[in-house]
Specification:
single chain, 138 residues
Length: 138
């Protein structure tokens, strides 16, 4: 009785797995090609994240067998993905509301220069006009 607990449905063969693997390799090449273009940094990041989302969907659908299973398995995956999006979204929303100097200066370089090579000025410049100041400590 226990041997028949898992119903044997239609499983994918080796040819389908090789095709999915080839698609993943092509998408990896597309990601590299997009990154080496002259597009803006923000557009390249958005394109790379979009391609990574497609690749993650391929892995989940075929290598994690979500294509063959339905119902509760897909519901659990969708709920966990929504939870991850919610956590990342709330973290980004919190970071956007912070005082600009709460983030470390010179910590991000888009030109590929290590941040240790960029010497900060002797004193930090004053914040731009209109930037709210934090309340004084009590």
């Amino acid at each position: 009785m226990a041997a028949n607990a898992h119903s044997e449905g239609k499983h994918l063969g080796p040819a389908q797995y090789v095709m999915v693997w080839a698609a993943l390799m092509v998408l990896t090449g597309v990601t590299l090609a997009v990154w080496k273009t002259n597009m803006s940094f923000e557009l390249r990041v958005v394109a790379a994240l979009g391609i990574a989302t497609v690749k993650a969907a391929l892995v989940a659908l075929f290598f994690m067998h979500l294509w063959e299973h339905g119902g509760a398995t897909r519901l659990v995956l969708a709920a966990s993905m929504m939870f991850v999006v919610l956590l990342i979204g709330l973290t980004l929303a919190d970071n956007m509301t912070r005082f600009p100097y709460a983030n470390p200066p010179y910590s991000v370089t888009q030109e590929g220069i290590p941040f240790v090579d960029q010497a900060p000025p002797a004193g930090l410049p004053p914040p731009p006009k209109g930037t709210p100041r934090p309340p004084p400590p009590h």
